[in-house]
Amino acid sequence: MNQFNNPATQSAATDVGLRSFLMGTYRKMIFAMLVTMAVAWGFANFVMFSNGAITPIGQMLFSPIGSLALIILIPVAFGIVGAKVQSMSVMAVNVFLYGFAAVLGIWMSSIAALATGLLGSGFDPYLVPKVFFMASAAFAGVSLYGYVTKRDLGPIAKVAFMAFVGYIALMLLGMFVPSMAIGGGLYQIITVIALIAVCAITAWETQQLKRIYYGTVGNPEMATKLSTIGAASLLLSFVNIFNLLLSLFSSFGE
Q1: Rounded Cα gap, residues 172 and 65, in angstroms
Q2: Alpha-carbon span 224 to 229, nearest angstrom
Q3: Residue 80: which residues within 8 A CB-CB, separation 6 or more?
Q4: What digits encode the pLDDT tens for the residues 60-82?
Q5: Do 58 and 110 touch, CB atoms closer than 8 A?
Q6: Nearest-CA neighbor of 211 among 161, 140, 155, 147?
Q7: Low-confidence residues in the chain, pLDDT < 50
Q8: How many other β-carbons are positioned within 10 Å of the β-carbon of residue 158?
Q9: Which three-class secondary structure state does DSSP give residue 54?
Q10: 183 φ/ψ sector (left φ>0, alpha ψ -120 to 50, else beta)
């Protein structure tokens, strides 16, 4: 029997292709994450003095204006790339991925510096690596769920997006109006809700990658470009999980 007329063979080939597509996406994400980590480490001296105090550059990065600029920049950048992806080259999309990874590295260095400065002498030097491994485990778990589940995660993702946007709005409000900043147990509860929301979004993103693969069969160049954009989106989700966990555990030590 001709194997190309065998539905079982076609299904197996599709599954192999899907796994290859997803593995390629996660491979790109890991390489981009290495860029993020390298930039964060290299930029650390610019955001924190050796005595633990935050430098003027670090204060500017984590100022209300700096945070708002980053929050606006991210969706605008994704929107521009998404709108022009048809005409962009594979190289240009790769430049976007690694440039975006570098920006996230600068942001992460300021987050880590802020956590260190808030906790002062009580800062656990192993907190960041602990949180990194926790974030990795959480990310892997929700991504696996997004891959294997048959349930449409779209409705859940919509609620999760609204919850996360609400969290960002509350944090920005606290930055611009310190008297309205949320602290204590309420802050921890809101952070946990935001963490759950980002995990739900990550699972949905993985499910979307499966749909992207099936929608680009026969167009390998577009599949490569959309895989790269997917890697950038997953990297952002991982960084959000990491930052939320770091903020949560830092709040326990204040």
Answers
A1: 9
A2: 9
A3: none
A4: 776 777 777 777 888 888 899 98
A5: yes
A6: 147
A7: 1-12, 118-121
A8: 13
A9: strand
A10: beta
Length of the chain as a residue count: 254
Cα–Cα dist 137/85, whole Å: 31
The whole-angstrom separation of Cα 202 and Cα 173 is 26
Contacts 24+ apart (CB under 8 A), 216-220: 217/17
Give the residue ranges of DSSP H helices in the chain.
7-47, 56-61, 64-84, 90-119, 127-148, 154-176, 184-215, 220-253
Whether residue 240 contacts residue 198, with contact meaning beta carbons closer than 8 Å, is answered with yes
- Compute the distance between CA of residue 212 and CA of residue 22 in angstroms, rounded to an integer: 10
pTM of the model: 0.85
Cα separation of 46 and 56, whole Å?
9
Single-letter residue type at 97: L
> Distance between CA 10 and CA 66 in Å, rounded?
51
User: Residue 205's closest CA among 253, 155, 157, 150?
Assistant: 157
- Residue indicated by tokens 């593995």: 23
Q: How far apart are CA 175 and CA 67, in angstroms?
A: 9
* Termini Cα distance of the chain: 69
For 82-95, what is each residue's pLDDT tens digit?
889 989 999 999 99
Phi, psi of 178 (to 5 degrees): -55, -30
